[in-house]
Amino acid sequence: MTPLLSPITLEVIVLLLGFVLLFVESFHKGENKSFMAQTAIYVLAVVFGWSFFTTGNAGVDLSKAFYSADATALFFKRIALLTTIVVLVMSLEYRGVLSKFLPQGKPGAGLGEFYCLPVFTCAGLMFMASAVDFLLIFVSLELVTISFYVLVAYMRRSTSSLEAGVKYLILGALSTGFLVYGITWIFGLTGETNLIKIGEILPELLADKGRLVGNETAVLFALLLVLVALGFKVAAAPFQLWVPDVYQGAPTPITAFLSVGSKAAGFLILIRVLEPFFGIPAIHDKLVCTLAILAGATLIYGSLAAMPQDNFKRLLAYSSIANAGYLLVAVASVRPTDSTFGSSGVAVAFYLAGYLLMTLLSFLVLIVVANHSRGDDIQHFNGLAKRSPLLAFGLLSAMLALAGVPFTAGFWGKFMVFTAAVGAHQFVLVGIGIITVGAGFYYYLRVVAAMYWQEPNDDTPIQISGLTKITVIGLTALIFILGVFPQPVLSMIEGPKTIVHQAPVHMAEQH
Amino acid sequence: MLNLIVLVPIIAAVLVLFGAPARKTAFTAAILQAVTALLSLLTYDRLGPQFQFIQKTVIAAEWDLNYLLAADGLSLVMLVLTGIVTLAAVWVTPEITRRPNLFYACVLFISAGCAGAFASQDLFFFYAFHELALIPTFLLIALWGSGERQSAAWKITIYLAVGSFVLLIGLIDLYLAIPEQFRTFDMIKLQEMARHNVIPAAAQSRPYIFLLIGFGILISLFPFHSWAPGAYASAPTPAAMLHAGVLKKFGLYGLIRVALPLLPQGAQHWAHLLLILLVGNILYIGLVTIAQRRLDLMLGYSSVMHMGYIFLGIAALNVIGVSGAALLMFAHGLSIAALFAMTGILRERADSLAFDSLGGVAKAMPFLGAAFGCAAFASIGLPGFANFASETLVFFGAFKPAVASEALAGSFKIATVCALWGVVISAVYMLRAYKQIFMGEPSKAVASWTDVVGAARIPVLLLLTALLIAGFAPKTVLNYVKPSVEALVPKK
Fold it and tell me: Are A299 and A318 in contact (CB under 8 A)?
């Protein structure tokens, strides 16, 4: 393996890009900072393309490493890169709104950092994708979270943005506390921070009943702390209360970033962290039960609360909670016996890939429409089909995909999630799923109804810039292409399969 | 061949959306589709293998998921139904002033969804094509419907979405019930497997009930029917024709194609429940239909009611019953489409379709009077029309069902006797409606209505001719249906 093609170069380039941009920003005198975002977009696109030519470090003994570059990790790195690219495109569209709410120094002031920080977030997400050690997980998570603290509260003259910032800061810090406490317990029990080593030590620890009484309780307690922390990150009920306000108050590109990037990272960590514990029969059942309760509560809360929303941004926030519910259904459907198809890890990864496309597309359209209609309520989408058929069709595809209609990427996500659930006999969750999918059709189609049924409030056609147009067309096309040909993405995600497959191996050794 | 039937409407719809002349394009596509469907039926070699015109593109090899089009006699009959009804539906559409392009694109998408579902022999595409019709229906009813169109659009969409999702769960459960080494989405292979009883009897009942409820919601099985009458009453004419005539048959077709061969024990396990529900369809909904005072609502309820007979034929699990059910699907599709087409013609002229505001229409519009009479008689099940032949087969089949237990066979007899009374109920509401609308002296307004003339008569005549052909010589259709049914119905 040549050093240039080593996967870690991807993160290094992204980090370097961030520093260079910061430097340029401090010495650049001009008012127009858009070139920074454009540079970042093109460089990240190159890195994205490059990621297909890197080879993973499959041969490395992960129990001695803290950085893994398996197929899963690469897949999630690509998710992070793609998300950041689209978020930067959105930021360019959003700069008008943004400069209105920034302190009025000289024009263009403060915009540069808004284009740099997502790059650092992206680097954090990419490191996190590869982390197999609690320390790296924690550090990269903090890199992501801290840059989000800044970004969420970025519009300093908007009270709702500040409110969102404070809420996110306090709850984020709280969840970090839970995470550290959980990691401490696990470290105290096993003496290790490496996840693979922990997976090796835990069965011995629990099998040796004489050594420490109450080990199982201790492990479960540690796990509970970690679950609470990750529950905050992925917006699972009952830790979802911050979501609607933060999502609505934050600058829209950041909302999109939070709901895609942050969620993808949360679920990846969830899978990685829980994986060693699933292998232990004594813990397996309790863990699955807890996750199922979380999943059910999240699904019901997200779907039912989304129904009466009139503000589209808030609706997307609740939809993001509901989608966390579907992802949790998949996580809760890990089962002791295994099948070739429908394993939860693949389901989670594929669902996230589809979710990324449709959520980013909805937010992109939202930003453009909100710019022209001066508001982000559902009624501001009235008659969009006449004002801009392209945007309306894009949003239609996104909504259909979110609702899970076949021939869109969203269908395969739901299909895999529920295949896993039926296979694991989680019929209560399936029953809840039937109700929430029905509810989903209602709240997603409300926007479609506004766009196609209603007459526009004003007739002026919406003009969109070239880059935005390309992004809308690209995302829409991807939604349909993945909906008919899921195979390319599936073969990219071979990694999570092996992760989930390990559980029965451990079990077999036990018996 | 099959690709043409499925893809022509899709391509036409896309062209229309991009600004091609709406009606002309749609009309050309519909003719092309209908002619191709008829040609495939005629060139189908009945002595050859069951599935012909096979086309296959691999989509996901590790799941054995392919874009697989193939047709046997049953599929071809349904495809011909799709072709004829689409053609008639496009033909009778009055001039659309608001956004004609979107309108015709939606109609074409529904037609493509039906054709795709009947021509696909891959579970995913079979399911997915049906869903293709969901959003066009949502838009058609809400934008161009009448009456309570928006609430009707919401109701049908949410209902069908939930139904489809239950169906999806059923298909997943079925898929996972197959032993791992045999799992496939290929319906031809699945049918082969069914002969070897790959799914143990104990594992059959859960997938079957999911499938029954899922398909049942799509077919408006009692008590999941409440979306249908209102939606059909509010829908614009072509949407009502395609939906009640063709799309609804998807669920029945699915039961015959997927549930019967793979889950015969499951079907017997739940036969009692199905019998109770289908008698609910026939008697309860029948009585509700009698109580209707508006033509469009009455037709909506009557189409729900007639589903009961088809269910009865399918529940019987024998070749006669299921062939009768398949023939009735064909016949009902044509007759209800004709009735809705003529309702649409009346709606263009009348302010209201309430019975007491109409009367004497036959004097003003003799052609419509005669044609409506024919379609109404067909719907009741008068000999000479395909409905009669198929209902007879269904009753024969249901009287001697292929079930193991004596008690169940007894219940079938009771259900059949109940169902026979349904014919009387149909006669009551249809004849009364006909008398009130078409007989008597026309009011001044009605007397001024002009009859359907010239080429506008063709779509209605087309549907009625097909009904008569299949009625006087049911063999023409049965010869195609029976071999498929024999391959699908479980052997004892």
Answer: no
Cis ω before B49 (30° cut-off from 0): no
Mean pLDDT of chain B: 89
The per-residue pLDDT for range B379-389, each reduced to its tens digit, is 998 888 889 99
Query: Nearest CA to A421 among A314, A335, A508?
Result: A335
Residues in A touching B158 (Cβ below 8 Å): 438, 441-442
The owner of tokens 């801009």 is: A388
For the record, the structure tokens of A479 come out as: 């939604």
Chain B positions touching A415 (Cβ under 8 A) are 168, 172
Sequence ranges of the domains in chain B: 270-492
- Average the pLDDT over A241-263 and give the result: 90
Q: Does B14 touch chain A (CB under 8 A)?
A: no
Tell me whether residues B165 and A442 touch, CB distance under 8 A: no
> Model confidence at A213, in pLDDT bands (50, 70, 90)?
low
- Average pLDDT, integer, range B430-434: 91
Q: Which residues contact A491 (CB under 8 A, 6 or more apart)?
A: none
For the cut 60, the answer to whether the pLDDT of residue A426 exceeds it is: yes
- In this prediction, residue A24 carries a pLDDT of 87
Give chain A's contact residues with B (Cβ, < 8 Å).
339-342, 385, 396, 400, 403-407, 411, 415, 418-419, 422-423, 430, 433-434, 437-438, 441-442, 445, 448-449, 452-453, 484-487, 490
Q: What is the DSSP letter of A156?
A: T
Residues A357 and A411 sit within 8 Å (Cβ to Cβ): no
Whether residue B182 lies within 8 A of chain A, CB to CB, comes out as: no
Please give the ipTM for the structure prediction: 0.90
CA of B5, closest CA in chain A: separation in Å? 19
For chain A, give every domain's residue range. 280-511
| Residues above pLDDT 90, as percent of chain A | 39
Query: What distance in Å separates the CA atoms of residue A151 and residue A509, rounded to the nearest whole number?
Result: 48
Interchain contact, B169 vs A339, CB within 8 Å: no
Q: Is the dihedral of CA A84, A86, A90, A93 positive or negative?
A: positive
Instruction: Report the chain A residue with the minimal C-alpha distance to residue B181.
Output: A340
Task: Please judge whether A487 and B61 are an interchain contact, meaning their C-beta atoms are less than 8 angstroms apart.
Answer: yes
Count Cβ atoms below 10 Å from residue B232 Cβ, excluding itself: 29
The helices-and-strands tally (H runs, E runs) of chain A is 21, 0
Q: Chains A and B: how many Cβ contacts under 8 Å?
A: 85
**Rounded CA gap, A412 and B358, in Å?**
51
Beta carbons of B157 and A445 less than 8 Å apart: yes
B50 pLDDT band, cuts 50/70/90, is confident
Judged against a pLDDT cut of 60, whether residue A212 lies above it is answered with: no
Of A339, A340, A434, the CB nearest to B162: A434
The pLDDT confidence band at residue A174, using thresholds 50, 70 and 90, is: very high
In chain A, what is the straight-line distance between the N-terminal and C-terminal CA atoms, in Å?
Answer: 40
Given a contact cutoff of 8 angstroms between Cβ atoms, the answer to whether A309 and A443 are in contact is yes
Report the distance separating Cα B173 and Cα A499, nearest Å: 24
CB contact under 8 A, A449 and B142: yes
Spatial neighbors of B58 by CB under 8 A, at least 6 apart, are B65, B66
pTM for this entry: 0.91
Identify from A414, A416, A445, A489 which residue to disrupt to test chain B contact, counting B C-beta atoms within 10 A and taking the largest count.
A445
Q: Is the pLDDT of residue A189 over 80?
A: yes
- Cβ–Cβ < 8 Å for B161, B154: no
- Check: CB of residue B339 under 8 Å from CB of residue B376: yes
Which chain A residues have a beta carbon less than 8 Å from that of B62? 340-341, 487, 490
- Looking at A216-220, A357-361, B3-7, B479-483, which range is the least confident one? A216-220
pLDDT at A511: 37
**Model pLDDT for residues B142-175, shown as the tens digit of each residue:** 888 888 888 899 999 999 999 999 999 999 999 8
